[in-house]
Amino acid sequence: MSLNNTDRRIRRTKQMIRDALTELMEDVGFDAITVRDLTEKADINRGTFYLHYKDKFDLLEQCEREVLDELAQVQGHVEGLQLENFYEHFNRGEPLPFIVKLFEYLKENGAFMRVILGPKGDPLFQVKLKEMLAEHLLKHMVKKARIEMAVPFDYFKAYVISAHLGVIQEWLFSGMKESPKEIAMTAFKLTFLGPRRAAGLISDEQNEKTSP
Amino acid sequence: MSLNNTDRRIRRTKQMIRDALTELMEDVGFDAITVRDLTEKADINRGTFYLHYKDKFDLLEQCEREVLDELAQVQGHVEGLQLENFYEHFNRGEPLPFIVKLFEYLKENGAFMRVILGPKGDPLFQVKLKEMLAEHLLKHMVKKARIEMAVPFDYFKAYVISAHLGVIQEWLFSGMKESPKEIAMTAFKLTFLGPRRAAGLISDEQNEKTSP
DNA sequence: TTCATTATTGAACAGACTGTTGATTAGTTG
DNA sequence: CAACTAATCAACAGTCTGTTCAATAATGAA
């Protein structure tokens, strides 16, 4: 069976290539990378690359898939930790466990995540990550029936999910100073209270008229 | 002077190339495009391409810069239309004029904007667009002094700006069904009321406790 | 219209990268 | 140790790049 990943040589080679990919993407961006660059930086024969990957796009795709799979697994580990609803979590001052786990994972894989979600990254990965976020976030938020004068649901969804991605990016690129729990709580407040209340631009009591 | 863009041949050639770029990006993505592809689709000599652009990246950059410059000009045309503040606009049921103009411009250049902001697009352009959005959006929102237990400003900023980009993308990719004014109002509501209130997931009166 | 200017063309060039092959060497598992 | 198989090295044709040159065509100004 050649499908087994048990051979130390294979693991080593793949790791070298992936590390090289991360480094090179940081430096010059994915576009400018050649298979030659990758194998030179990884210090392996160029032919060896093609033993494992079809081309550089295949390499990127495999790396991305791995990240997404691992993120999906994370979700499995927090099923038990969820309270009944969104609201209850907030009132205890606790962020959603899933989001905390998400930020913990991002921190572990900081180097790759920074590159792939950065200005030289892959917009397709952003789309995939947003799909995953949507799946796990929205089920906590949409328990109650909807009322009057509502914004279309798809735009609510796009708004919230994109906003969360924005927080993730800001966190990654500003050096991940806050703990996963803190930053998860920040994201939570922004959505739960709305950005203006969360940022303290209006107080809780001082209700602006919302008539029209 | 060869810097003049008055020569009809130059204008024609550049336009052919740019159209080819948009079409090809839609089909195969920027990565997979060669200068050969571009010039064949544009039906011009390959050497001619290099008379105007350094390489395909230079082409993309020039196209992006042009869009951003035009968007910046749009801002100039609405200076007079702004009310004193954010709050007043909302209470009249009117979105910010700048955002309306933004969506109008996006609609005019729909084809290119869809590609560049899509899964095969350019993440660097997203960053630049967000910078522009930040500049024009935030000055309307941050009039009042900030209060207690606030989320860090940078995260508020990242949240709101990213969220707006999300609405833009959702609108572009779902066929731009709403009018620029409608969709601008949708984005406005989501930020002004907060996403949950805007989507009707909680009512205005029914204030959830926000104690912790 | 004429004329000087200049954008475009077509062909050719070396250089680089790709993806594949075959024979050989080296490392791994049991 | 022995069988297996991953990694290496060299070489291949094919494609794309970026540049150059002389020849041609289109343009704007007088």
TrEMBL record, chains A, B:
Keywords: DNA-binding
Position of the signal peptide: none
GO molecular function: DNA binding
Start and end residues of each HTH tetR-type domain: 11-71
DNA-binding region: 34-53
InterPro entries in the cross-refs: Homeodomain-like_sf, HTH-type_Tx_Regulator, HTH_TetR, TetR_C_Firmicutes
Gene3D superfamilies referenced in this protein's UniProt entry, alphabetically: Tetracycline Repressor, domain 2 (1.10.357.10)
Protein name: Transcriptional regulator, TetR family
Source organism: Fictibacillus solisalsi
